[in-house]
Amino acid sequence: MRPRVKKLAAGLDMYRKVPNDLLEGTKRGSILSYGAITLMITLFTMETLSFLSAPVIKTNVSLDSNPDEKVRVNFNITMMDLKCDYAVIDVVSSLGTDQNVSQNVRKYSLDAVGVRELYAGRNKEQDDIILSDSLVTDTIEELHANGEDAVSLDATTLSAALEEHEFVFVDFYASWCSHCRDLAPTWETVAEVMYEAAAEKVEGHKHMVEGHDYNEEEYEEALKVELPVMIAKVDCVVHQAVCSTNEIFGYPTLRLFVEGQHYGDYHGDRTVVELTHWLTAQEEDFKEHLEPEKRKVVFADSLARQMMGHAETREEMNQNPLDDKKGEGTVSVEQNIKAEIKAESFRKREKYIWKDIDHPGCQLSGFLLLDRVPGHFNIQARSPSHDIASHMTNVSHEIHHLSFGNPVNAKRLDLTQPLTPDGFEHSLSPMDNNVYVNQNEHEAFHHYMKLVTTQFADPYEVVVRRYPVYYQILSSSQLSYYRNDIIPEAKFSYDLSPIAVYHQSEYEKRWYNYITSLMAIMGGVFTFIGLLENSINAVTTKKRL
User: Is the pTM here over 0.90, yes or no?
Assistant: First the structure.
């Protein structure tokens, strides 16, 4: 058997050689050989460059398998004509979630030209404001029995009042406003306090604190004395032009004018004592150079405290502020005034020092965590202590930034790598720096956004892990119109696409593909040139025959 095996082994030869004596070189074969070598070198070079080139992007789509329950929206939006006092962000989803969000939202007031002034607080509704004084038990009709002390003004009389009085405190209200009706008795009582304080300066005036009784002659005499603060009111239903000129769209708006100019709006508890004490703080701020005893509002504040039965205040003062004139007290009114100012000055200055003049705008920035279901969030004008006038509500806005997902992922994305498709960065926040202006009343822009989940696979990642999630936004905006009785709102609707996009980088050839390609080039070129030479040889030989 061994000789037979050896014979078979010797017979296996895949590379049999033809003796050189039988080979014949030709000029044509030499030319084709040089051509074959040139073609091989060219193909070798191109294949090597292709192997060494950067990976290519392979894009696939499939059902979104993102397990996250929430999606984060990052925003920085400026409301051009909506004060921070009224700007509220609400979130509504198809799961029934409806909430005023505040934890991660910041609000900054803007002046008339859009310059950010100061930090105005979180996106939180004030629900702790006392809307009326419970100590005022008389109805507005009972308080008006002896005449109205809070003067009703129109455009002409308001201008006259601002010229004649140094301090004018105006309640801009609407007859249909429930908060305004609740405030009316308190406001009338504040006006009575001012007339009482003015009347005390009339020599020989008989004053009775408990009954507020004074005859007509004394009342007329009191009117001749300059009021510490003129308490007035303007019905915005009747005098719409006046309220529009003063940019009033929340009722009631309690506005202080000093020397004919808008000095500030009141936002605190709507009680007689708090109102008069705030006026005292404003007078102190406006007349820092003036001695306390020469200030006019301070006495009215002390009188208000006594009239409203604040026993602790009387203990602090040790006497009725009016009794000092009778020689019955041991502490002067001037000393009481100084003590009051010293005790309350810092707190009131801290709370009310900002003058809310020509600051119609509000910048809202932060992020929200939304359910990964269709829904919307909106920016609207709302206040638990005001009724908003729909025809005065303007929700024009500028979107500085609006995106979804973790902002850290966007910073990590290297846009210089070929892995990132062209325009991908813009698709993450396509609405940035867009301005949406409402030209007419009862209209607002609504934005519709389709979110497409997008992920990338790192070609150099060895450890299998979960890759960052990005959200491309397909957006559209349209102008929506509202009924006259509905307050417009800037609405941002979102919906998540069920299809996710996956970008994965792949090398065009692996090393073994590269080697195979080189062999294929050599064998293919050699075979192709051989067939070409044989064809040419066969044709030329046939012609010679």
Answer: no
